[in-house]
Amino acid sequence: MRVRATTEAERGLFVDTLHTAFGRFPETPDDDGRGVWWAALEMDRNLFAVTEDGRPVGTAGAYSFELTLPGGAVVPAAGVTAVGVLPSHRRQGVLSAMMRHQLGELRERGEFLSVLLASEAPIYGRFGYGSATYTQRLTVERHQADLAPPRAARGPGAAGTVEVLRRADCGDILEQVYDRYRRARPGALSRPHRWWERGAGQPPVAAAPRHIAVHRDADGVPDGYASYSVTEPDTLTVDETVAADDAVSTALARFLLGHDLVARVVFKHVPPDHPLRWQLADFRAGEVGHDTDWLWVRLLDVPRALTARGWFTDGELVLDVDDPFLGEHERYLLTVRDGGAVCVRTDREPDLSLDVRDLGSVYLGGTAPSTLVRAGHVRAHHAEAAALADALFRSDRAPHCLHWF
After folding, report:
1. Where are the domains of the chain?
2. Domain 2-111, second-level architecture
3. Which of 29, 200, 243, 286 could form a disulfide with 224 if both were Cys (CB 3.0 to 4.6 A apart)?
4. Which is the CATH superfamily of the domain at 135-291?
5. Domain 2-111 shares a fold with domain 135-291
């Protein structure tokens, strides 16, 4: 078995092999190849695992994304996707071979971060990926959906209007509003124009029928949207809400919760720090479900990754980082001053010892290092180490990723 790159001419074979790995059959794309989730595949970044006679038995791909880091830096990140092995060749080292080959290729491209969405949580930790952002589903019964008046002194809220459009009529608005949003949210990924243009992914990127509540500011400029549909006779389901700020998010939530002829509103993709539950007059009216991991992060170059993000507390931390999958072990001195960092190799005694997967989990500020210490995954070498790491790795706001890939 060997791993090789794919070609554009093998797109169909790649898609068929991947679907067979999951026991499924591909959808039928539009005549121009649009309208299916794989329409945005970058075939020059994809891989086949093939047998000695050339038959593909495994697939792995990557997209070219940008990831927003704490502090606002926007950096390239490889979005690993389309990973599958035929049932006939599982547990024979095929997946490990593809992952090792792919990580090597990403490094050759000069990339220092890789991200993915894990179909099964136990799989990707052994390849150095750590869960870094989290998301929830929030269900609100409409008879309990009143919002409480804000108790703190504040302005009148978002000035502007909400109008309802059809998905087919507002693709440009969605793309522009999302792009402004993702540049300001740690953990958010870009949605390249190719995705919107080809209708790749899940709604509202896909052109599936949806109603879009568009919020416009006082000057008429779109600054938020919510994609939704009535999925059952009495349930309004919100794919995602994208807003420039909390006031716009509240205006959209108020609109959705006021929809007639539905018994409940389900917000599918809510960050753990979302204020809506606290805005409800009845806190218990917001039922949290499907609290799960979303974006997983893998550091390919520790010094470059740590110096790329912003920092909000000064300090020094020595990290002893083990990367068992790639057979690497290094110790780094992280020095943070005035929002920036320097990271160099050192032989100083460590403050923390951790696996590279755990470094991926804390990288965006969505997982506290002290949590992993308490879980028994990270070793703190002295009493102050965990608290210092918590202070250093915190983010300006909780990271959250909406994009599906």
Report:
1. 2-111, 135-291, 302-393
2. 3-Layer(aba) Sandwich (3.40)
3. 243
4. Gcn5-related N-acetyltransferase (GNAT) (3.40.630.30)
5. yes
**Mean pLDDT of the region 335-341:** 97
Check: CB of residue 41 under 8 Å from CB of residue 10. Answer: no
Q: Which amino acid is at 364?
A: L
Q: Residues 245, 216: contact at Cβ < 8 Å?
A: no
- The closest alpha carbon to 198, from 34, 361, 14, 8, belongs to 34
226 three-state secondary structure: strand
- Domain 302-393 in CATH 3.40.50.300? The answer is no
Angle at which helices 385-393 and 356-363 cross, to 10°: 50
Nearest C-alpha neighbor of 223 from the set 150, 161, 147: 161
Nearest CA among 311, 296, 314, 400 for reference residue 356? 296
C-alpha Rg value of the chain to the nearest Å: 22
What pTM was computed for the model?
0.96
Whole-number pLDDT of residue 242: 98
Q: Which backbone phi and psi does 385 adopt, to 5 degrees?
A: -65, -45
Cα distances from 362 to residues 93, 146, 161, 320, 373, in angstroms, run 29, 36, 39, 14, 12
How far apart CA 240 and CA 269 sit, in angstroms, is 6
- pLDDT above 80: residue 158: no
Strand order in the sheet with 315-323: 340-345, 328-337, 315-323, 352-355, 379-380
Helical (H) or strand (E) element with 127 = none
What is the longest distance spanned by two Cα atoms in the chain? Answer: 72
Strand-pair category, 328-337 with 47-50 = unpaired
Q: What is the rounded average pLDDT of the residues 120-124?
A: 94
Catalytic residue among 63, 65, 112, 124: 124
Is the torsion defined by CA of 201, 206, 211, 214 positive or negative? positive
State yes or no: is 124 an active-site residue.
yes
